[in-house]
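== Sequence, structure tokens ==
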Amino acid sequence: MSEFDAIDPGARIGHVHLKVADLERAVAFYRDVLGFEVTTRYGDQAAFLSAGGYHHHIGLNTWHSKGGTPAPAHHTGLFHTAILYPTRRALAVALKRLRDAGVTLDGASDHGVSEALYLRDPDGNGIELYWDRPREEWPTDEEGNLTMFTKPLSLGGLLAELEG
């Protein structure tokens, strides 16, 4: 096996850049609802937001989409952007923020390896908010292969992380 057979295990997906119809509406959602901080703006055409002072995790622009509509269902494109939270409690805080803002979830799932919330931004872009369980807790079969699944996630159980 050559070093060129697989991507370097240290590779990461660094950011997502989304086309949006209304920059101010999109910034308000990612900043005020999800809690990202604006790091850079390019007038009324683009904004970059981050968590923890990184240059940007999310780019938003209206360069080719100002006033546009969401992509129709059953067409190709981005299924969702996944935002990884460091702990279950941090995901619970995100759920509380969503509820406080009146955001409706598309779903909530326990995948064995992770717990996830699914929703849409104001432009119809899919978003997954999730946290990963510790690797030693991931479900496996007798041969050690991952056995991910999809079961309903108890939102009450998740919000219980915020008690006490």
Remarks:
- The chain has two domains: 15-65, 79-163.
- The domain at 79-163 is CATH 3.10.180.10 (2,3-Dihydroxybiphenyl 1,2-Dioxygenase; domain 1).
